Amino acid sequence: MAMSEALFATQPSTEGLRSDVAVLSTNNQTGYRAFKAGSFEFSRDEYFARLAWPGGTHILPIDVFLRAMMRDVAWGFFYGVVNFDGVFGTINHYGEVTVFAGRFNDAYTAAGRDYEERFAAGVLMGVFKDILSDWTNSGFDPFAAPMETGTPWGIKNGDNDEAITRQRVTARRMVGLPGDTPVRSDANGFPVNRQFADVAQDQPLVEAEPGFEHEVSAYNLFGYLSRSDVTWNPSVCSVVGDSLFCPTSEEFILPVEHGNDRCEWFLQLSDEITWDVKDKDTGKPRARVLARAGDICCMPADIRHQGYSTKRSMLLVWENGSSRIPEMIANGTAPVVAVDF
Fold this sequence. Notes:
The protein is α+β, with helices and mostly antiparallel strands. It has 2 domains: 12-163, no CATH class; 169-229 and 231-330, Jelly Rolls (Sandwich), CATH 2.60.120. Helices cover 14% and strands 32% of the residues. It is built from 6 helices and 18 strands. Helix 1 (62-74) crosses helix 3. Mean pLDDT is 94; it is low at 1-13.
């Protein structure tokens, strides 16, 4: 398939910041479109996502690629680095995003084969959404656990835009407060997940003083998480200043290796997750952590991590959402660890 025939493109790039993206020709055999963002080209076949850039190529299994792309899109490129695997990924500069190949792989960097380009976040998000939409077939949900969805393999077969355009929960103050994101229920389309059938669904009784009905609230967090229809998708459920509580349900494998740009606290609420922790820059292993219910750990700002959970588990991710932290860590005014023993 030729990868040079552009169907549309944005305006030419400004100096140092790429803004040229394009939808390329459709493959006559598979029915999938190819895409281009700057000098990076993306195509897929029945089994694989195929990436190319000046001086290099890379292949990922299409299920791995789509699950990672789903998180990158849904999270708005998240905090820091989203490694799709050990080669390809993105870095969030909060308004701008770097796409890289080999940036955090010591073999690539030692050989001088790493490559990267920087984009306006909105431009890159547009083409990433187009890739996700075109490459996700009917019946496959890249947000779901493998046993809860179909397969991504084969030639082009419809789409699943309803699944991939779910809106991530981002409470302004707290889930359940009047005017904020609602508590999940059967009535609003969130049944209890198959692995959480034993979780109690009763809600706390709140008796607020008159005049404080919109200020005092509570809800059953375990019941709320038992009704999550996605995995590995931390949603903002309470906000106090820059302090964000982002609980989530986890099953199978975190689809990305998350490279932190700040410390990140994990409170294991149920069951267990095994974490592989690696050096952020080189990818070399640093630790393996087994988190069981009640355990608390802090992921430092200089690592990447990926989790594994057989039994669907509940995890509370505690984030400091301050936009100042990455610069403070870079200039040494904030530590890469929360506690220095």
